[in-house]
């Protein structure tokens, strides 16, 4: 997991430059940059004074131009100015280059600030009130990351939607499409899930889902949004949808268990992300699978990950 901790305005000032005393006592800005949106919270004296969301600024999901535009809109709302630190968590931060590219987009809005960019799962663990343990994100994508008492880090998943993202919103949306196409191939009429999916996509034939799925006009975020249809169908008792929710929970639990084993710890495991925090059926499957693996300290995140920023800044020193 990559952590790029840049000196103030590292792209425009000598590396020997350090924050002024004023900057060090200024505001802290936390950013949670997901595949669908960017949330920014401005903290002053440890209290949130501005909380805004804009479109995604994750260059894994949008163009650099769109990312820059969304960040500019966000900082216009929450303010730049006298900022001591910006701590940003984003999916897809796997290399120093990934982190540096995002930090460079942030830097013009906060001259003089210390900028730290990490994988968004690190925010989740801190928001769960833990300094060690494993965080599992179940949102547009999926990943697990953790740290033990010796400071060793480990991860599982987080490979992106073409290679993984099991148990994520995108995975569920894609599986809903696959379910509908299988029924079509078997000569069966659309069932509850397929009917809901066709209506949501604005088409009248499952065969049309193929071209739509591969179209650049839809993409990862669009299909992740269709996960709600699987959740709703599962809640209504649709057996294939319930099976998908159970599989999603098991897949996420497998990511957590892999990470726990790598770190040699017992927990805690903290589940977050839009799906993880809001879908009881997924949570139940996740807990059951981890219990079968001997992992019982399992928690569902009770606050948004961005609020873990203050703990991370304190740990950073």
Number of strands: 11
Derived from helix and strand composition plus strand pairing, the structural class reads alpha/beta
Summarize the main sheet: 6 strands, mixed
End-to-end distance: 20 Å
Structure in words:
The chain is an alpha/beta fold. It has 13 helices and 11 strands. It has helices spanning 21-24, 64-78, 96-106, 120-127, 169-185, 192-201, 208-214, 220-225, 227-235, 239-263, 273-278, 280-292, 309-316, and strands at 4-6, 27-33, 37-44, 47-55, 83-90, 114-119, 133-138, 142-147, 153-157, 269-272, 298-300. A 6-stranded mixed sheet has the order 1-6-5-2-3-4, with helices on both faces. Helix 5 (169-185) crosses helix 9 (227-235), helix 5 packs across helix 10 and helix 9 (227-235) packs across helix 10. It is globular.
Keywords:
single chain; 317 residues; alpha/beta; six-stranded mixed beta sheet; five-stranded mixed beta sheet; 11 strands; 21% strand; disordered N terminus
Secondary-structure blueprint:
Layout: E1 4-6, H1 21-24, E2 27-33, E3 37-44, E4 47-55, H2 64-78, E5 83-90, H3 96-106, E6 114-119, H4 120-127, E7 133-138, E8 142-147, E9 153-157, H5 169-185, H6 192-201, H7 208-214, H8 220-225, H9 227-235, H10 239-263, E10 269-272, H11 273-278, H12 280-292, E11 298-300, H13 309-316
Parallel strand pairs: 2-5, 5-6, 7-10, 10-11
Antiparallel strand pairs: 1-6, 2-3, 3-4, 7-8, 8-9
Helix pairs in contact: 5-9, 5-10, 9-10, 10-12
In short:
This protein has 317 residues and is α/β, with parallel strands linked by helices.
């Amino acid at each position: 997991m990559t952590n790029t901790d840049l000196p103030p305005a590292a792209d425009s000032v000598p590396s020997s430059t350090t924050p002024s005393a004023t900057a060090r006592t200024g505001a802290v800005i936390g950013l949670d940059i997901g595949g669908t949106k960017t949330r920014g919270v401005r903290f002053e004296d440890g209290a949130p004074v501005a909380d805004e969301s804009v479109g995604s600024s994750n260059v894994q999901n949008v163009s650099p131009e769109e990312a820059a535009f969304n960040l500019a809109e966000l900082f216009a709302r929450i303010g730049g100015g006298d900022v001591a630190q910006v701590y940003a968590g984003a999916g897809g931060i796997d290399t120093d280059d990934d982190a540096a590219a995002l930090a460079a987009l942030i830097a013009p809005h906060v001259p003089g600030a210390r900028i730290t960019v990490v994988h968004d799962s690190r925010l989740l663990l801190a928001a769960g009130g833990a300094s060690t343990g494993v965080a599992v994100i179940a949102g547009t994508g999926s990943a697990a990351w953790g740290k033990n008492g010796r400071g060793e880090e480990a991860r599982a998943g987080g490979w992106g939607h073409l290679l993984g993202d099991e148990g994520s919103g995108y995975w569920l949306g894609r599986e809903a499409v696959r379910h509908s196409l299988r029924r079509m191939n078997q000569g069966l009429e659309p069932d509850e899930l397929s009917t809901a999916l066709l209506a949501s996509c604005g088409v009248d034939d499952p065969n049309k889902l193929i071209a739509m799925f591969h179209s650049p006009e839809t993409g990862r975020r669009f299909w992740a949004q269709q996960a709600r249809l699987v959740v709703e169908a599962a809640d209504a008792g649709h057996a294939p949808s319930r099976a998908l929710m159970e599989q999603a929970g098991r897949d996420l639990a497998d990511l957590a268990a892999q990470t726990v084993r790598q770190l040699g710890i017992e927990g805690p495991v903290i589940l977050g992300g839009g799906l993880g925090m809001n879908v009881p059926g997924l949570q139940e499957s996740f807990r059951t699978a981890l219990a079968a693996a001997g992992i019982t300290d399992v928690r569902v995140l009770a606050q948004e990950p961005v609020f873990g920023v203050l703990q991370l800044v304190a740990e950073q020193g």
